Amino acid sequence: MSLRFGYGLNGFTDHRLADAVAVLADLGYDGVALTLDHAHLDPFAPDLAARTREVAGLLERHGLGVVVETGARYVLDPRRKHEPTLVSDQGRERRIELLERAIRVAADLGAPAVSFWSGIAPAAAGRDELWSRVEAAVSRLLPQADAHGVDLALEPEPGMFVERVADVLELRRRLGAPERLRLTIDVGHLRCTEDADPAACVLGAGDLLANVQIDDMRRGVHEHLPLGDGEVDFPPVLAALAAVEFTGLVAVELPRHSHAAPTLAAASLDFLRDAERAAQDPDRTRRPQEVGR
């Protein structure tokens, strides 16, 4: 087993992109999860293609892989967090445009996947209408994803319309199981919302996995915690990722911890390597040293 560990750059927003990438490369990370936002690569600022080429060169010089994330809080609306979404009553076109840009950016960076989510369901919309909105949006995006050779990795998000892994599978069923529609899992979310334990969820997802975010969490509480501060048992999760032969990045997702990014990045990688060793040794019962304590 040899997993590829990355770090989410939404947890490095107090750093210039070049500095964040250098820190992570020096620590020994294999890649980054790049959120399209004002901090590092603004998807709506001028000369996106040229700026994307610069980022691609930066990552290549440091030997880092990349996956593209689209969960920026205020990139579309400076007053409403995460809005508009794929299920909003108004403005869905703007979210689709962002995802179209993300597909092109991913292709130019050599990223295998764009991660995205559905959004929180408006109170007045029924489930049939919400499914219709998600289906219509993803159906529009799939031909572009296919043309650019990029997977659309839908993330079940606590509190959103597509909240569980089963919801992603339902969308795939409704759309005829398109090859480019795959799955992002956040390991913490699995602990927060799923009935099965996280390792079982990973094994169930199998080769549908296109992107993995990793953080700690507690049952029923959607709060991204440093590894070891919650309830996730990490060695079985990493063993499950190895068992399904996942080759993408397993990227630490701590978007509210930029104030301590270098320290947490170093501790997180030590934790993950320790957990990976524990996953390979059935006689090893010691829990990896906790991060952030």
Automatic annotation (TrEMBL):
Residues 22-274 form the Xylose isomerase-like TIM barrel domain. Keywords: Carbohydrate metabolism, Isomerase. This is Xylose isomerase. One of its GO terms (molecular function) is isomerase activity. InterPro entries: IolE/XylAMocC-like, Xyl_isomerase-like_sf, Xyl_isomerase-like_TIM-brl.
